[in-house]
Amino acid sequence: MLTVAITAPVGAASIGTAGLMDALNKADNSWALQAGATAPRLFDVCLVGLHGSGDNPLPVPCRDGVLLQPCTAASNLPTPDLVVIPGLDDDLDDSFVRNRGWVRWIAAWHRAGAVVASSCTGAFLAAEAGLLDGRPATTHWMFADLLHRRYPKVVLAADQMIVDTGDIISSGGATAFLTLVLYLVERFGGHQRANLAAKVLLADGHRSSQLPYVAFSADRSHGDQLIHRIQQHIDGRLDLPLRTGELAAHFALSTRTLGRRFQAATGRGPQAYLQHARVQQAKRLLETTDDPIDQIRLRVGYHDPAAFRRAFHNATGLTPSDYRRRYGLPNHQTHTA
C-alpha cells in the first residue's frame, strides 16, 4: 500500500484539496466493493497540515470559511511514497506567499524518494522547490505564462492535461483533479482499477489536452500600451488580411521593431497573434450562435475551409463541429463540418 500525503494549502478552495483526498479514497473503496472486502487497498491517504506539531496539526482555513482538519503536521510526517500538491488560490501571488512554507518539505520528501504530483497551480510550489528545472511540466492554462516567466528552466507543456517524468507528475486545472486521480490509480494500480474508478466517479480519465478549455490567454497582461492598441486594431479586423509591414507602417514602427515589441509583450508575433485571435473568436461564435460554420469561418478571416479546420484543430484539439457539439447552444443545428 502506497502512503500518500496531500498537502493542505491555506486559503485555497477546499474542493481542490478535499476532492483529491475523497476521490483517491473512493477509487479504493469502489475496487474493494467489486473485488471483495479482503482486496488490498492501493492508497493510504493522509491530509497534511503545514502548521502545528506532533499529532496536533492546526486546522487549515480554506476559502469561504471552510476548515479542513489534517491528520498530521508536515514536521511529524515520515517520507511518504507519494506527495500530492493541490492547487493554490486564484489570487496566486498572495496564496503563494501564504503557502511558501511547503517548499522545503516538498523538496525534502522528494530528495528522500517520494514521487511528487502537482495539481493545477500546485506546480508553482514544485517549481519553487526546484523539482521542475529542465523538465516538462504543466499547470492550469490560465497561469501557464506566469509559470514560464517565473521559472524559465521549466519546459512548459501547457496544452497537456498530465505530464509524467517518472518521479514528478504535473496536471492541469483545479477541477481536473479527477483526471489526476484516475491517472494515479492507473499508474500505481493498473488499467482495470482506473476504469472502475472512472465509472464510479462518472469521470472521463482520457482527456490528454487542455486546449478545448482555453477561453483566453495572458496576451493582455503586459504593460505595453502601444501593443495593446495594435491588438485592438487586429481584433477589430479579423475578417481582413493582415500584412505585418502595413500594420507596422500604420503605427509608425519598423517591421522589425513591431515584431520585437509584440513578441516581448505577448509571447508571439503579430501573425501568430492574428491566428490565435481568429480561433478565439471562432470559439465564441460556435459557443453562442447557431450561425453556419462556413459563415463563422469567413467572419474570422479564413477563406479556405481546410486551413480553418487545421488551425482550429491545432489550437483546440477538436474540429469546429465537434467543438460546437460539446460547447455550443443546446439543440443547435450543426450546418457543416
Largest sheet: 7 strands, mixed
* Oligomerization status of the protein chains: single chain
CATH class of the largest domain: Alpha Beta
Tell me what the CATH architecture of the largest domain is.
3-Layer(aba) Sandwich
Mean of residue pLDDT values? 87
Strand share of the residues?
A: 5-15%
Largest sheet, order of strands side by side? 7-2-1-8-9-13-12
Q: What is the CATH T-level topology of the largest domain?
A: Rossmann fold
The chain-level structural class is: alpha/beta
Structural account:
β1, α1 (14-35) and β2 (43-49) form a beta-alpha-beta unit. 45% of the residues lie in helices and 13% in strands. It has 14 helices and 13 strands. It folds into 2 domains: 2-213, Class I glutamine amidotransferase (GATase) domain (Rossmann fold), CATH 3.40.50; 218-327, Orthogonal Bundle (Arc Repressor Mutant, subunit A), CATH 1.10.10. The protein is globular, with a radius of gyration of 23 Å. The chain has 337 residues and is α/β, with parallel strands linked by helices. The strands form 4 sheets. Strands 7-2-1-8-9-13-12 form a 7-stranded mixed sheet, sandwiched between helices. Strands 3-4 form a two-stranded antiparallel ribbon.
